[in-house]
Predict the structure.
Amino acid sequence: MTTLDIGRGRDAVPVRHPARGRILWLLATIAVLAALMAASVTFGSRTVAWSDIWAGLGGADDTLGQAAVAQRVPRTLLAMLIGAALGVSGTVMQGVTRNPLADPGILGVNMGASLAVVTAVAFFGLASPTGYIWVAMAGAAVSALFVYTVGSLGRDGATPLKLTLAGAATSAASASLVSAVVLPRNDIAGGFRLWQVGGVGGASYERIGQVLPFLTAGLLVCLLCARALNSLALGDDLAAGLGERVALVRAAASLGAVVLCGSATAVAGPIAFVGLLVPHACRLLAGVDHRWLLPFTALAGASLLTAGDVVGRVVARPEDIEVGIVTALIGAPFFINIVRRQKVREL
């Protein structure tokens, strides 16, 4: 059993998470995700009959309903993959930095990946989908390194407050540069406009096949670092005393997180707040043990993005609201609440 100290203060309340309870919550999360998958295939701008659903799942596209189902299946799969990647990435970033506000969007990593892709397309003629992913990962890595370096300046090192401020400034600067690059270029502005918002509307099996190896590799690296992340939570000195190579663990876990958020951004655009919302919610169910927390956040992240995509398709019929807008509407109040409650303390 593990213990989660809610509040981390003098009046912290220990909450125990026995393995049986975790397994039950894990099964419940899987059931919720399965229900959301069914809803994602069923609901949208057009309501389809059960006969069309079964036919569409089999690959038929003879009717409008069947064609709609055939398009929703890859969209659902991509939403699940991107949500899982962002959820795990945010969890690892919070563990590496010991910052409750760490998130690929808040720390500027997503916008760094976006800037790299836009720059490569506008000035170097990048056209390969796989090239987008490599460039996005490189941009995410540079942005993450820059934010951590700036946040580490000063006597106290990389405090949560300094990391958050450095990330917010980097994100704002990157967003401005993206606009400066895209706006004068009418030939690419149209294609990047929706991508900058963040969404999974252009999903296809081909795109899933291109990004899946990168997401799998990033997830495996993060899972391999799970036990070491538990040691990092105790502090660098104690982790080193337990035999962990702190710098190596931090670099490896950060690499996995960068691969996940960079490749996700290349395919779906910069979707924010998933990596912030999901880890905090999952700690209430799974505790702080990353060996349990990472699988939980993968499933919960997939559920959140799938649910957000369904909501975006239903509330504005027959138009779609991109899932990046939905997660921003949910995540912004949650972010403010964490700032007020945690007062930007370390995890």
User: Anything to note?
Assistant: The chain is about 75% helix and 0% strand.
